[in-house]
Amino acid sequence: MGGGTKARYIRQIISCEGAEFVCLQEKKSKVLSEAKCFSLWGNNKIGWLHYDGDSGSLLSMWHKESFSYLSHMMGKGFIVVYGKHIKYDISCAVVNVYATCNLREKKMLWEELSSIKVASQEVVWCFCGDFNAIRRRSERVGSRVMYDLSSEINGFNSFIDANFLLDVPLVGKKFTWFNSNGMAKSRLDKVLVTEEWMEKWPTCK
Asked: Is 122 exposed, middle or buried (0-12, 13-18, 19+ CB in 10 A)?
C-alpha cells in the first residue's frame, strides 16, 4: 500500500470485481489516513478498520451501501467485523486474518477464533487472509520448516472441521506465496466460509 504500483493494482481489483468488502494483510503503511483509504478504494462511501500488530498489520474495508457495520473485535492477528449485507439482509461476520509463523501462536489464534465464532452462531461467517498454515503437504514446496508439519496440518484441519468451514476454491495459481527465486512456494492464503455463506453465495471463489 505504501507504493503507487501496489495501490493502483488493489484499486483496479476493487473496481473490476465490484468489491463490497476487502481484507488486506501485511500492509506496509504504519500510519493510515481516511484519505488513503478513500484513494485506495476510489470512493469515499467506505468504512474501515486498521490493526497494527507485531506480527503484521491488517486493514478491513467495506462499502457502506453494501455492508452495514454493527461492531467489531480485534486481537493479535485478526479483525472481526460484524454487520449486515444490505441487499440480502443477512447478518455476517468477516474475519481478516494474518497469522505468525510460530506454531504455538497459530494454535492460540485458532482457539481464539473458534471461541469467537461459537459466541455468535446466528451470523454467517467468512474467515480470510494469510493463515501461514497448510492443510496438506502438497501445499508447501521447497520451504524449510523448523517444526513437524504434521502438527500444523492436523491443528489447522481440526480448526476448520470443528467450525464447519468450507475451503473456498482458489482461482489462478496453485500457490499464494513464492520466494524470490520461485523455488519455494506455499498456499498460505485461504478463504474459509460456513455452509450458510456458501448457500447464499454458491459461486464463491
From this structure: exposed
Q: Which residues pair with 84 in a beta bridge?
A: 68, 91
Averaged pLDDT for residues 42-46: 91
Report pLDDT for 115: 97
β-pairing, 124-130 with 90-98?
Answer: parallel
User: What amino acid occupies position 76?
Assistant: K
pLDDT band at 28 (very low <50, low <70, confident <90, very high): low
Confidence of residue 97 (pLDDT cuts 50, 70, 90): very high
**Alpha-carbon gap, residue 53 to 102, rounded angstroms:** 15
Rounded distance between C-alpha atoms, residue 5 and residue 195, angstroms: 37
Domains of the chain (ranges; CATH) run 4-200 (3.60.10.10)
Tell me the three state secondary structure of residue 23.
Answer: strand
Contact predicate 168/204, CB 8 Å: yes
In three-state secondary structure terms, 131 is coil
The residues pairing with 52 across neighbouring beta strands, listed in sequence order, are 57
